[in-house]
Design a protein that fits this description.
single chain, alpha+beta, PTS-regulatory domain, PRD, Gyrase A, domain 2, 4 domains, 4-stranded antiparallel β-sheet, 12 strands
């Protein structure tokens, strides 16, 4: 009778195989960064992007999103362009000149009326946004606002307030710095954005939220949960390797993504993540910060059960993987 097909032998050292399968081609990677068609910024690929993914960085160096528009709108380029323009974040610094007067301890904001009419923003809207930060009074002219902090306010605090005003978000979606239109193979259009804000874009009425994608794994975890983050981590790892023509089986990427997300949140590989939290004392000590791990283990009277590969190599025992898992007893 033919044996049942299985994907991997029991006791196979799948972790070591995955590490070898990703690590060895990783040395072949070029350090070149890649110019993402049209978005005028260098997006890391290759080794820098791989490091970014396995380090589970808080946010990628260059976050971007692919935004898919509902079918009835996506065929018309002018409509998609209009939606894209509406997504771009407009800051106060692009609509007004902000000047500090340290002698009189005040800040003058002169709104450019031509720009706000083009952007279809009213002076009242701008005033309401500014009032969230500080109390505003009308200036000599209609388009000038004056902010006069209290007499006791230090010059440093006036500068802090000015910087906050410059980056004050007025219109569009926060953190979306620029957008561009990309034509899909089927003749429809999608939007690529520089910057990422998944939660806000998914609420947009013209956007297909299920198809919208960001390269920021941590944001996917916050908005859609750890399962979605695990899947996108697998996809991103595979995409980085494929871009360099390195044929790595997707199962190795899946194992790495599983290991990073198994505790319900994304952990990095390294001394602050998986390697620093291994069960065995000797395995942790063998990686980095040896003395720290040994002292902590001695203080807490920890015991090493010798269940991993590293610990057994250190003490010269058979490693418990493959044939090493099997113990034979013999009846004399």
């Amino acid at each position: 009778m033919a044996s049942k097909a299985r994907s991997v032998d029991p006791g196979e050292a799948v972790g070591i195989i995955a590490a070898q399968s990703i690590g060895e081609p990783g040395t072949q990677m070029t350090m070149r960064t890649f110019h993402y068609a049209g978005v005028a910024e260098q997006v890391p690929t290759g080794l820098p992007r791989l490091i970014e993914l396995v380090d589970a960085r808080k946010e990628p160096k260059k976050p971007l999103m692919d935004v898919y528009i509902k079918e009835e709108l996506s065929k018309s380029e002018p409509k998609v362009r209009e939606i894209a323009h509406g997504l771009e974040s407009t800051l106060l610094s692009s609509l007004a000149t902000i000047e500090e007067d340290f002698a009189q301890k005040l800040i003058r904001i002169a709104i450019d009326e031509k720009t706000i009419s083009e952007e279809q923003i009213s002076l009242d809207d701008i005033k309401k946004k500014i009032q969230k930060l500080a109390s505003v009074s009308e200036g000599e002219e209609k388009n000038v606002f004056v902010i006069k902090p209290t007499k006791t306010t230090s010059l440093r605090n006036i500068r802090r307030l000015t910087n906050k005003l410059r980056s004050l978000h007025i219109k569009g979606i926060e953190r979306i710095s620029r957008t561009m239109i990309i034509r899909n193979a089927d003749g429809t259009y999608r939007i690529r954005t520089g910057g990422s804000n998944l939660a806000a874009i998914m609420k947009h009425p013209s956007v297909i939220s299920e198809k919208t994608y960001t390269n920021d794994i941590q944001e996917i975890e916050r908005v859609l949960g750890v399962e979605a983050a695990r899947q996108s981590l697998t996809n991103e790892l595979k995409q980085v390797l494929d871009m360099q023509n390195l044929n790595v089986d997707i199962r190795h990427c899946m194992l790495l993504a599983d290991a990073m997300t198994m505790d319900g949140k994304i952990k990095s590989i390294g001394r602050h993540g998986l390697s620093g939290e291994k069960a065995g004392v000797l395995a942790r000590a063998a990686f980095e910060e040896t003395i720290k791990h040994l002292i902590n283990a001695a203080v807490h009277a920890e015991e090493d059960r010798l269940i991993g590969v590293t610990e057994n190599i250190i003490i010269g025992q058979t490693v418990p993987v493959g044939t090493g898992l099997v113990k034979l007893k013999m009846k004399m």
